[in-house]
Amino acid sequence: MKKLSVIQIQVLQQRLAKDDEVALKNLYDGTADKLFHFAYAIVHSKEMAEEIIEDVFIKVWQKRAHVATIENLVFYLFTTTKNISFNYLRKYNRKKSVWLDELSLPYYHINASPEDLLITSETLQGINKAINELPSQCRIIFKLIKEDGLKYKDVAALLNLNIKTVENQMGIAFKKLHASIELLLPAAKKSSLKKN
To answer: Which backbone phi and psi does 32 adopt, to 5 degrees?
Structure first.
């Protein structure tokens, strides 16, 4: 799955409004994995999360005539995923609410080539480990902003949080990641010196 750019998403929106099924498939291919992880974090069931994502794209297809007018389609997809996930929880688990601290994401993994980033594999593993050790609220906010590209205000609205809370959580994430990277850099330098 390749990440869709803002322009690609806007083009897909316009094509969807013209009943283009290929546009729906391309949108699904470019966003379903992110949405699945978000739904899974809420419902804690792979099968249920898969059904939720199907329902999200059925809803997008049903509302395709109005999709072109949506300002931020990615935010819309996450909001729809959240709402359908909570509907599933109410319907099947009779659970009325889920707290942000209860959300569990799969382990975070940065996919990057060392040539592109000039980072050793040990450093990359250390960064992934540091991200996975963030508190759950902090980690989900970090993922939505850094991996999924949502804006702070969108994440605040999506998770029913104050924007200051989102900013504070990102600050916590950056401080913890910075501290972890600082610890990794001397080890990475020693490792590269041994290789030379």
So the answer is: -60, -40
Q: What backbone phi and psi angles, to 5 degrees, belong to 31? A: -130, -15
Q: What is Dmax (Cα atoms) for the chain?
A: 61
CB within 8 A of 31, min separation 6: which ones? 4, 74, 77
CA distances from 74 to 41, 98, 99, 175 (A): 17, 22, 23, 27
Q: What confidence tens digit (pLDDT) does each residue in 166-175 have?
A: 999 999 999 9
The model's pLDDT over 149-162, given as tens digits with 9 standing for 90+, comes to: 889 999 999 999 99
C-beta neighbour count of 100 within 10 angstroms: 17
Distance between CA atoms of residues 35 and 55, nearest Å: 11
Domain of residue 183 covers 106-195
Q: Do the domain assignments include residue 1?
A: no
Report residue 120 as tokens. Answer: 């050793």
The residue whose two tokens read 């609220």 is 137
Distance CA 64, CA 16 (A): 6
Count Cβ neighbours within 10 Å for each residue of 145-170 and write b for 16 or more, e otherwise: bbbbbbebebbbbbbebeeebbeebb
Distance CA 26, CA 29 (A): 5
For residue 43, being part of any structural domain is answered with: yes
Residues 69, 30 share a domain: yes
